[in-house]
Amino acid sequence: MATLSDGLTAYRVCAKAEGRSPRTIEWVTNSMRYFMGFLGGDAEMEAIGPSQFRAFINALRDSTKYRQHPYNRPQREKLAESSINCYARAIRAFFSYLVREGFLSSNPLAGVRMPKVPEKVVVTFSEMEMERVLSLPDKNNDKGFRDYSVMLTLYDTAIRLSELAGLTEGDIDFDSGYLRVMGKGGKQRYVPFGVRVAKALMKYKVKHRPRPLATDRFWLTMEGRPLSGDRIESIFREYAAVLGIRCHPHKFRHTSSVHYLRNGGDPFSLQKKLGHSSLQMTRHYSNLADSDVRAAHLRSSPADRLGV
Questions:
Q1: Active site includes 199?
Q2: Is 285 a catalytic residue?
Q3: Taking the model in full, what pTM does it have?
Q4: In terms of residue numbers, what domain contains 80?
Q5: What integer pLDDT is reported at residue 66 of this predicted model?
Q6: Is 184 an active-site residue?
């Protein structure tokens, strides 16, 4: 009988051939290894059912953060519901793959409800905070202007960090004002950028960009090598430390989306910009932008202004 490790080996080969992102493959692989560790080792595919899966979810609820992390120390804080949900979705996706490829006749986990994830308030910068953040890099030197251009591009376009880091010279259409980005699931889309970003990108390319070392990536280190997403996150943390605030690339995506709607943009065009397959996620930004309506009403309430 085929075991879970047999299926996992087959999954990695198939997922790579289908063009799945390395992060997706790693996500499923690590989640399954965690599950197999809970089961006490490798097990036959046919032996897994809802009871083992639910027991694993309950064990995760009793687990603490970084308990089995190779680099971070274990913490006393319980594992977040979002992390538990993430493990559960990856494992169920793996079993769906087993059914699709004929290893199993049906998905034994299909009827198990996924752990609920509490809705969190999307934290964004105000326009004043955004101006403060953009003023931090020293635009008079190459590194500072690069960092400023990276921030401005993220803020204006709301693209993901991976999409930004993966941009090549050929992905930037200065004539039409579009970026060609490769989104999740290998889906390509075109994202517009404004005049200010166009000027910053061109100035970086002509004046501040170092000579590339065997790469066509647009964003480079000072040595001419590709600027990775991890390095960009590190740069953001350095600037955040100066202001004493939380500043990470995805916060720029949130902020851009909310400010876009507040400035008159519509949810449908925002959905296309963000690369969302449905409006469900985009609605979160719409709801946050709509919260301005109450603030405006409190400032201009007709009834509150009556003198009686």
A1: no
A2: yes
A3: 0.68
A4: 4-100
A5: 47
A6: yes
